[in-house]
Amino acid sequence: MPHRTIHLFRKGLRLHDNPALLAALQSSEVVYPVYILDRAFMTSVMHIGALRWHFLLQSLEDLRNSLCQLGSCLLVIQGEYVEVVRDHVQKWNITQVTLDAEMEPFYKEMEANIRGLGEELGFEVLSLMGHSLYNTQRILELNGGTPPLTYKRFLHILSLLGDPEVPVRNLTAEDFQRCSPPELGLAEHYGIPLPTDLKIPPESISPWRGGESEGLQRLEQHLANQAKHHSLPPVSLQGQLLWREFFYTVASATPNFTKMAGNPICLQIRWYEDAERLHKWKTAQTGFPWIDAIMTQLRQEGWIHHLARHAAACFLTRGDLWISWEEGMKVFEELLLDADYSINAGNWMWLSASAFFHQYTRIFCPVRFGRRTDPEGQYIRKYLPILKNFPSKYIYEPWTASEEEQKQAGCIIGRDYPFPMVDHKEASSHNLQLMKQVREEQYRTAQLTRDDADDPMEMKLKRDHSEENLTKTKAARMTEQT
Q1: Between 209 and 236, where is the model more confident?
Q2: 335 vs 450, which has greater pLDDT?
Q3: What pLDDT score does 461 carry?
Q4: Which helix H or strand E contains 313, and what residues bound it?
Q5: 348 near 332, Cβ under 8 Å?
Q6: Model confidence pLDDT, tens digit, residues 232-241
Q7: Which domains does the chain have, with CATH numbers?
Q8: What pLDDT is stored for residue 312 in this prediction?
Q9: Residue 453 binned pLDDT confidence (cut-offs 50, 70, 90)
Q10: What is the C-alpha separation between 340 and 303, in angstroms, rounded?
C-alpha cells in the first residue's frame, strides 16, 4: 500500500538532489512537506542570531515558492520537534516519515527520538544521506574505525572509495502529481512567520539573500569565474568541498567536537578568561583596523572571506588575546549565515593550533597581513568609515599618525577610535612561548601516562613533536609573522 508521508525538511532546504524527498514521492499517495520551526531548539541548540533568522525565513520562502510551482506547498509548523511530529502523524494518519540523515549529535538525537515515536505509533522512518558527498561511516570503516586526522590521510581514504555518488535527478511536477497534495487550507494555516512574529529586528538583514534559487545562481557564477582562473585543490571549489567533507568526517566520530574538555583530538590549553577583551574583539573595538573591519562586516553581513576568518581567529586565540577558540566559535555560530557545526568548530581548532594544525609558529600579523592583501585599505574604509580619510600609509596603523594628521583625517585615536588593545609583537611572542610549553607538556604527559598507540591525541602529539624536531630552524623563528 502507498504511504501517507510527512517529509521533514531540516538542513536541506532545497528540491534539487534531495534523495529523501524523491523517495517519499515515489512511495506515497500523499506527501506533506513540513518544516518544524522549533524556536527553543533554534536559540538554545543552534544559537542563531538575527541575521541567520532572516536568512532562514528567506530560504523557507524560496522553498515554498518552488514547491508551489510544482503543485505542492510547504507547511511550517511551530512547536517542539517530537511533539509536532506526534500530533500530526495522528492528525493526518501518517504511515511514513522521511528526512535527511545528518551527523550532528543533536540531529542524530532528533532522528532517534522520531524513530522511537515511530515504534510507538506504528509509522516507518526513512532517512537518506544527502548533505555530504560521501557516507562518513564508510570513510571511518576504511580508516580502521577512527577518523583520519590529516587531510593527506583523508584524501588517501577517498582514493580507495572512488568518486562520490552522482546527484539524484531533479524533481518535476509529474512527481508531485502522482501524489495528492496536502488538503486545501493547510498551507495558509501553516504559513511562514514574519520576522516581527519572531521578534527579530527588521533592520538585521544581510545583503546575502537566503534560498536555493539564490544559492544555485551564485554557484553558477562561481563556476563560471573559476573556469577563467583554472584554480586547483585545495583552493578550488572542489578542494574546499573536500575540506568540508574532512571536517564532517572527523566531527561525526569525535565526542564533544565543539568543546575542548572531553575532546580527544583537542589540545587542553589553559586559555585566559577575559570578558572585556572578548567583548572588544566581538564588537570591533580592538584598535586594529584590519581586525575591526572584519568583525564589523561579520556583524553587518553575516559573511567574511576565509582569510578574514583566519586573521580574526588567530588574533583572538594564539596570536594576541589567548582566549579560547570556543568563545570565538560561539560568536561565529551566532553571526555567520553559513555557520556549521563541523566546519566552524574544526576551523577554530585548526586556527588556534588546538588540533590538525602543527605550524603554530605562523601567526597572522593584524597589520601586515591585511596591508599585503589590500595595500590601499579600501576594505577598512568601507567597514570603518571613521578611518576613511587616513592616508594609506596610516590606514592599518592610525595610531602612528601625528596629532595633526589625525585631526586632518577627522579621527583622533583614543577618542574617536581606540588605541590597539595589545602590543602585537609582545603578545604574539609571549603566546608563542605559551603554545610551545603547552605542546611540550602534553607530549611528555602522553609519553608518561599512555601506552595506547591508537589514542588520537597521542598520535597527533608524537607526529607533531617529530616534525618539530626535524624542522628546528622553523620552530626557532619565534617572531615569525605572516
Answers
A1: 209
A2: 335
A3: 53
A4: helix 306-314
A5: yes
A6: 665 678 888 9
A7: 1-131 (3.40.50.620), 132-168+214-253 (1.25.40.80), 255-482 (1.10.579.10)
A8: 98
A9: very low
A10: 13
Are 336 and 298 in contact by the 8 Å Cβ rule? The answer is yes
Give Dmax (Cα) for the chain.
83
CA dist 272 and 31 (Å) reads 53
pLDDT at 29: 96
Alpha-carbon distances of 267 from 340, 350, 351, 480, rounded to whole Å: 22, 11, 12, 22
Q: What is the mean pLDDT of residues 74-80?
A: 97
Q: Which residues pair with 124 in a beta bridge?
A: 96
Q: Which amino acid is at 121?
A: L
Q: Are 439 and 360 in contact (CB under 8 A)?
A: yes
List residues bridging with 4 in a β-sheet: 30
Q: Over the stretch 258-317, which tens digit does the pLDDT of each residue have?
A: 999 999 999 999 999 999 999 999 999 999 999 999 999 999 999 999 999 999 999 999
Classify 248 as helix, strand or coil: helix
Is the separation of the CB atoms in 377 and 396 below 8 Å?
yes
Look at 477 and 68; give whichever has higher pLDDT.
Answer: 68
Spatial strand order of the sheet with 28-37 comes to 75-78, 28-37, 3-9, 96-101, 124-129
For residues 416 and 414, give the distance between their C-alpha atoms in angstroms, rounded to a whole number: 6
- Give the CB-side neighbour count of residue 189, counting CA atoms within 13 A: 6
Q: How far apart are CA 209 and CA 58, in angstroms?
A: 7
* Length of the chain measured in residues: 482
Question: What is the three-class DSSP state of 428?
Answer: helix
Retrieve residue 193's grid coordinates. 512567520
Q: What tens digit of pLDDT does each residue of 158-196 get?
A: 999 999 999 999 999 999 999 988 998 999 999 999 999
- Over the stretch 214-225, which tens digit does the pLDDT of each residue have? 999 999 998 888
- Comparing C-alpha atoms, which of 117, 121, 155 is closest to residue 139? 155
Mean pLDDT value of segment 356-380: 93
Checking phi first, is residue 145 left (phi over 0); if not, alpha (psi -120 to 50) or beta?
left
Handedness of CA 18, 22, 28, 32 (dihedral sign): positive
**Rounded CA separation 459/476 (Å):** 23
User: Rg for the chain (alpha carbons), in Å?
Assistant: 25
For residue 77, the 8-state DSSP code is E
Distance CA 404, CA 44 (A): 50
Continuous H helices in 1-142:
19-27, 39-44, 50-69, 81-91, 105-121, 136-142
- For the four alpha carbons of 403, 408, 414 and 418, in that order, the dihedral sign comes to negative
What letter does residue 268 receive in the DSSP assignment? -
- DSSP code of residue 266: S
Select the more confidently predicted residue: 341 or 481: 341
